[in-house]
Fold each of these.
Amino acid sequence: MKIITLILRVSLSVAVIISAPAALAITAGQIDDFENGSIMGWQEGGSSPNPPTNISTGGPQGANDNYLRDISAGGAGAGSKMVMFNLSQWTGDFNAAGVESIQMWLRNEGNSSMQIRIALNGGVTWFSSTNGFSLPADNMWRLATFNLTANDMTRVAGTSDLATVLDSVVEMRILSANSPDFRGATIDATLGVDDIEAIGVVVGPDPDADFGVISVILDLILDDDSE
Ligand SMILES: [Ca+2]
Ligand SMILES: [Ca+2]
Ligand SMILES: [Ca+2]
């Protein structure tokens, strides 16, 4: 009986390990638009008094455009820093998915200017945007693009190289910091975010394949005419 239970537990564990990455893996073109009313997995530590929330209107498209809002309180303790993380759809093999950059709309809804960066964790090693996206406190939506090249990303913890981290990302963060970091600045601020998109390699239609289809259609038409 105990052995059967153990086997069942091991089987279930293996099933979870095998299925989890496939279900969560990043894909080029994916967009967090927050129109389903949820926070789409963007979160903070469990004790934060000001975790990300879904706002039902006022996104970059205006009325009824949902977006995500994160508040940081400054001072000390939980919720003092401007940072949120995702452990689900923004993890996996960015290289295999062909993701070259991450684009998002950002708005500074508070009174403190911010330098927005993304940070990627490969387990131990962290990379962060080399240059922050300047977000003045003017309540205007701006489109930011964070490229994932070696020049655009700076290692801030660990020893792995960027390609290795992009092979197996376990956590992605959006944060404000005045220099490359995976930790958010301690700041009294409010950030709006929408349409977080994984920009991939542009793959056009295969012209040979198209011609092949046209040839078959032409053949069918010619066959018809000849009969
Ligand atoms: Ca939206
Ligand atoms: Ca909506
Ligand atoms: Ca917060």
Amino acid sequence: MKQRRRNRLAVLVVIAAVVSFVVAVHYYNNRPMESKVHKLQSSLPREVQPLRIRPTDYVMAPEDAKLYVDNVINPIFLRYANNNQELPALRSRLIKLAQMINSKQLVYEAMPAYYPLGKTFLMKVDYDPQKFQVLLVVFVPAIKDVQQQKNQRDFEDNVAVALAHEMIHLEQGGQPFLAKVAGRNDLEAKKLLAQDEAAAWGKTIIEILRPLAEQGWNPEPKWLDAGEKLKMLGDNYQHPAWVINFYNPDRHH
Ligand SMILES: [Zn+2]
């Protein structure tokens, strides 16, 4: 009987040793991965580094931000995605974005704070450096500001266009794009970022903003002006005279 108990103890010790070994190997294998991700993230220019927003930056309760997204933003999102009368270039982006959220390729986050680089930023595609997860961060206080400044129609179009614009960034590469930017020198990285933003805004203006404005939407005057400028450049959003407008980080949306 004693012998059997001793054998059982020996088996338990062996199991514990095997489990400890497996756990240790797992952590050892994951360590270089984490530091690789950290290295990639820290070599990115400030504009695309993961958001460092702390609870002290919050200007509203996180639960209220979440409720606002559920009650105000999502009904607009769904209405535009489901309306087959809607502009195809806009609607198809919202459908794709909703599919990415539903399939968990994208984490949709209600942020109870403003974007640190600019209070007019409505949303941003971002990355979780730990999980390397793609996020769509919605800056709820900034969207509430737009709601107060505009009539309902203009506000809803604004939200829908902002969502479509973020989807255009994802179409242009998203995470692999950032990997391409990382490790470049500052000047090269800024050039890639400016080209990415210039193309995203070019497509937003040509495919969505102008047709919606023709249907009665009143976009921000600065985007109408930008649209005129782009037209003068033959709608070529790769033109250096267009790209130069996007070197400033506060132009990265
Ligand atoms: Zn953008």
